[in-house]
Design a protein that fits this description.
The complex is a heterodimer of chains A (95) and B (221).
Chain A (H helix, E strand, L loop, with lengths): L6 E2 L5 E3 L4 E2 L1 E8 L5 E4 L8 E7 L8 E5 L2 E5 L11 E7 L2
Antiparallel strand pairs in A: 1-2, 4-9, 5-8, 6-9, 7-8
Chain B lengths: L7 E2 L5 E3 L7 E10 L1 E10 L4 E6 L5 E11 L2 E11 L8 E9 L12 E3 L5 E4 L6 E9 L3 E3 L7 E5 L3 E5 L6 E14 L2 E15 L3 E4 L3 E7 L1
Antiparallel strand pairs in B: 1-2, 3-8, 4-7, 5-8, 6-7, 6-15, 9-10, 11-18, 12-16, 13-18, 14-15, 14-17, 15-16
Classes of the chains: A mainly beta (95), B mainly beta (221).
Chain lengths: 95, 221
């Protein structure tokens, strides 16, 4: 091991090791059905970030999400037969 | 830059811990074998949960996250679904699940490492199991996603797509509500697949509407 942190449980099991990539939260919001929007997250520049969307109303369609540069966007999804869900939108950092 | 405190990087240079961004940790894990929906309660918590699944059944057995229950300001449960792949099909799906969140309270451990941010929120606590990401990729429903470097991981799927299909059978046929999930193809592969959540009614038209077919897949430990 060149450097880093290794964490063990009391029984010796390693729960965090030097190669591990962990998920940390940068942003979350509950967004309304039918609403689209975006926010600028200047501090994610140069970092590895992932956008996620989870419906709060499973019978409807969750928002689509994307990251372009430092802008995180969410877009309501619906069509003639399916309504837009309230969604939980997230940005997770691994860097 | 963190205002103060500690920064730990992994051997690839990715930050694992600092004083700015709170680390997800495991709150709950278990196994289900369901044909339909099942709600798993979580501690009332204002921080958003992330749920991962690991299908363990046949190649046509599909599972996923149906939705998250929210009662402002707290997240209270995760609802999972399981079923057989295909339109109008029925059958149970066995799978394992993990729910990660940001816990407000410290662990019971009397030793180790604990980091707080400048708002005195818990950022990292070595008494909790961290959320470890193995691989992130892009996949398409109906196409097998291979991950030869990792065996039997857990999966996060975003977004969970929805669909609605009407089947014309004279004089009227069924209308099905579909949800996209994942089905295990092998220990090192998985496939996004539609499963039937409900029959909504009848129709005298044939149609198929889907919210999409591409998704981000996150493999985690």
């Amino acid at each position: 091991m060149a450097y880093g942190l290794r964490v063990r449980k009391a029984d010796g099991t390693v729960i965090l090791n030097t190669p591990d990539m962990v998920g940390r939260i940068r942003y979350s919001a509950v967004v309304a059905s039918g609403a689209s929007g975006s926010t600028t997250l200047s501090d994610i520049a140069g970092k590895t970030a992932y956008a996620m969307s989870i419906p709060l109303e499973g019978a409807k369609i969750a928002h689509s999400v994307s990251i372009a540069g430092t802008t995180f966007s969410w877009t309501a999804q619906s069509n003639a037969r399916m309504a837009s869900s309230i969604s939980l939108v997230l940005v997770i950092l691994t860097d | 830059m963190p205002d103060y405190g500690l920064r730990i990087k992994n051997s690839g240079g990715n930050i694992q811990i600092d004083s700015l961004y709170r680390n997800y940790v495991l709150e709950k894990s278990g196994s289900l074998d369901i044909n339909g929906l099942h709600s798993i309660s979580i501690a009332n918590n204002p921080n958003p949960p992330i749920a991962a699944v690991r299908p363990t059944g046949g190649t046509d057995r599909v599972c996923g996250v149906f939705d998250v229950s929210y009662s402002s300001p707290n997240y209270t449960a995760v609802r999972f679904f399981g079923g057989k792949g295909g339109v109008g099909q029925s059958g149970s799906c066995p799978f394992d699940y993990k729910i990660y969140t940001l816990l407000e309270g410290k662990s019971a451990e009397a030793y180790g490492l604990r980091v707080y941010d400048n708002a005195e929120k818990l950022v990292y606590d070595s008494g909790y199991i961290p959320f470890k990401i193995l691989e992130v990729g892009s996949a398409v429903i109906g196409t097998t996603y291979n991950h030869p470097s990792y065996t039997n991981p857990y999966y996060i799927f975003s977004p969970w797509h929805s669909g609605i299909v009407g089947i014309y059978i004279p004089n009227q046929g069924p209308v099905f509500s579909l949800k996209s999930g994942i089905a295990k193809q092998s220990p090192t592969s998985v496939q996004g697949m539609w499963t039937t959540c409900a029959q909504l009614g009848v129709t005298n038209m044939s149609f198929a509407d889907y919210s999409g077919t591409t998704f981000t897949i996150i493999l985690c430990e």
